[in-house]
Amino acid sequence: MDSSAIIGNWSDSDKLQITILKITEVAKTFYNSNQQLHSTSISWENYKFKFLHRFRDVRNEQHRFLQIQTAKQQKDETP
Q1: Whether 32 contacts 24, CB under 8 Å
Q2: Do the beta carbons of residue 47 and residue 16 sit within 8 Å?
Q3: Residue 30: left if φ>0, alpha if ψ -120 to 50, beta else—which one?
Q4: C-alpha 19 chain-centroid distance
Q5: At how many degrees (to 10) do helices 12-22 and 44-54 cross?
Q6: Cβ-Cβ contacts under 8 Å for 51 (sequence gap 6 or more)
Q7: pLDDT tens digit string along 3-52?
Q8: CA 22 to CA 73: how far, in whole Å?
Q9: What letter would DSSP give residue 37?
């Protein structure tokens, strides 16, 4: 999003409006249930922080290592 915003020369208000239009499913439910996100005074950084905090990956490195260690190549997959 930030890369597109730089290219398009979007303001923070533009970023907020476009993000609100683009979010779907669980993110849309989170947005609709959080009244702070509807405030006209919320900053882009605060808005982005709330979403990144809510949807962060909470799995640790051990979990990721185990996934890699137990991964198997499928017959139709190339290396």
Answers
A1: no
A2: yes
A3: alpha
A4: 10
A5: 30
A6: 27, 30
A7: 889 999 999 999 999 999 999 999 999 999 999 999 999 999 999 999 99
A8: 34
A9: G
